[in-house]
């Protein structure tokens, strides 16, 4: 990786964690879906408790899933239920249908690790418009219509369920809804009208398609052209000497690099090994008032983890800092939690836990003025301090080049160099 001067704050993959605005993680994005299942209607009428055979419900959904778990949604459904009895008498017939348009707000329980990385339970509620329609409820004797008509009323519902990610774009869900309305007016001869609430519970399966995941770009296959007639052979000429290979771009060629795979932002010595330093990396962010890291933060820490595993002799202190907004006690606790979150993530990626310590300093060590937004942004950080860098670091590399193998073998035959070398980051 290319190196930057310390005056540039050396973006170690070691991290200044932008504290308060903490940019939200990229959300799952907009989605559409289909759902359908069983409907269980219970409807009070002026004739007594009306009971229904299990009916069906189907509909479409559309919404937007945010990375913080919130998921606003528009849900359009149609329900159909056959009448079974009124007041205990089964010699009846009739149908009740309902159209509904609900604005819902769900909360998905998400995690980047374990079962909740693909299985997301959710809860929430919704409000909206319901149009219940009664189609010819007849008297127990089979006589004339006793209850019919339709009305438009306000409705509200509670919901819960779980979604399972089949792919990056498709989610299969199991959904429960409990829907209830204000009283609707229906025809009820000979009395004229009667008022009742529409109440139902539904269990559905759903399938959602998200537009947020990146799409693969098709690669055009080149068409082979007819080979031209061979040209006369040119006289051989000397080839220029090949430039030294530097696979990790730390400024030390592979044939001299005793510590391959150095991550971007580190200062190294003449042997290509990390030296003692304090490095800050902008761009490793958290969600607001939380120790939950964003996706780009985890990608950066993956590079850091690879380097620390390659140099197991390094000891690193992870220091959390905040700006002056909020109480000192709150900021101290938050900075400690974020530093611990970074340490836990690195340990989860295979870094030795005994080589990592986490500390929180809250607002006590500003590097800029807290009177401006720019200064507060500088103060919201987590620093990585390399506190122990051995003069010679054993090469641990799962995919070493032949040149680095040779350099590693020669490291035991000559003393380690002490001079440090700093390199500019490539543009």
Structural summary, described in words:
The protein is mainly beta and 427 residues long. It folds into two domains: 6-21 and 250-421, 2-Layer Sandwich (60s Ribosomal Protein L30, Chain: A); 29-210, Porin, CATH 2.40.160.20. The protein has four helices and 20 strands. The strands form five sheets. Strands 2, 3, 4, 5, 6, 7, 8, 9, 10 and 13 form a ten-stranded antiparallel sheet that branches. 35% of the residues are buried. Mean pLDDT is 76; it is low at 1-27, 213-217 and 391-427.
Briefly, what is this?
The chain has 427 residues and is mainly beta.
Report the CATH C-level class of the largest domain.
Alpha Beta
Helix proportion:
10-25%
Class inferred from helices and paired strands: mainly beta
Count of helical segments? 4
Distance between the termini: 11 Å
What's the mean pLDDT score?
76
Keywords:
60s Ribosomal Protein L30, Chain: A, elongated, 2 domains, four-stranded mixed β-sheet, mainly beta
Topology at a glance:
Layout: E1 17-18, E2 29-45, E3 48-52, E4 55-65, E5 70-86, E6 95-108, E7 119-138, E8 145-150, E9 153-165, E10 170-181, E11 184-188, E12 192-196, E13 199-210, E14 268-269, E15 277-280, E16 284-285, H1 295-310, E17 315-321, H2 328-348, E18 356-360, H3 373-379, E19 381-388, H4 402-411, E20 420-421
Parallel strand pairs: 1-16, 17-18
Antiparallel strand pairs: 2-3, 2-4, 2-13, 3-5, 4-5, 5-6, 6-7, 7-8, 7-9, 9-10, 10-13, 11-12, 14-20, 15-19, 17-19
Helix pairs in contact: 1-2
